[in-house]
Amino acid sequence: MWLKGEVKTPPFSHRARLEAGYLMRLLQEGESIGLPHSRPMPVIGARCHELRINDESGTFRIMYRVDPDAIVILEVVKKKTEQTPQSVIETCRHRLRAYDRLMES
Q1: How many angstroms separate the CA atoms of 47 and 65, rounded?
Q2: Would you call 40 helix, strand, or coil by DSSP?
Q3: Contact 27, 33 (CB under 8 A)
Q4: Which residues partner with 71 through β-bridges?
Q5: Binning pLDDT at 50, 70 and 90, where does residue 6 land?
Q6: Domain boundaries in the chain?
Q7: Do residues 55 and 76 lie in contact, with contact meaning Cβ atoms separated by under 8 Å?
Q8: What digits encode the pLDDT tens for the residues 16-58?
Q9: Are residues 102 and 1 in contact, defined by beta-carbon separation less than 8 angstroms?
């Protein structure tokens, strides 16, 4: 189930797109990815993490949750500060609630 129009495709270079795709494939296959590529984000919710993608134009974060049947992409942001902005955390929480409501119906 897609939350239409919620998450935009990031302006990744070809290399960064391949790296993100490779890491997402590992997640889909059930592998656990740790630092330096991924870290838990319990402040967003249970089973939530951020995937770190370094690119020529900067560093990106893909916020995601690992569900038994899906990898739920919550947000893709270009890293500008050391901490994750509260607005990004709130957006991810909002999208999780919307996704969970849709999946329950």
Answers
A1: 5
A2: strand
A3: yes
A4: 66
A5: low
A6: 14-104
A7: no
A8: 999 999 999 999 999 999 999 999 999 999 999 999 999 988 8
A9: yes
3-state secondary structure of 99: helix
Count of residues in the chain = 105
36 class by beta-carbon count within 10 Å (0-12 exposed, 13-18 middle, 19+ buried): exposed
Tokens standing for residue 58? 């900067």
8 Å CB contact between 60 and 12: yes
What per-residue confidence (pLDDT) applies to 10? 77
Nearest to 64 by CA among 36, 88, 83: 88
State how far the Cα of 23 lies from the Cα of 33, in Å rounded to an integer: 8
pTM of the model: 0.89
The secondary structure element, H or E, covering residue 28 is helix 14-28
Pair of tokens at residue 67: 């569900």
Q: Give yes or no for a contact between 49 and 64, defined as CB atoms under 8 angstroms apart.
A: yes
pLDDT mean across residues, the chain: 90
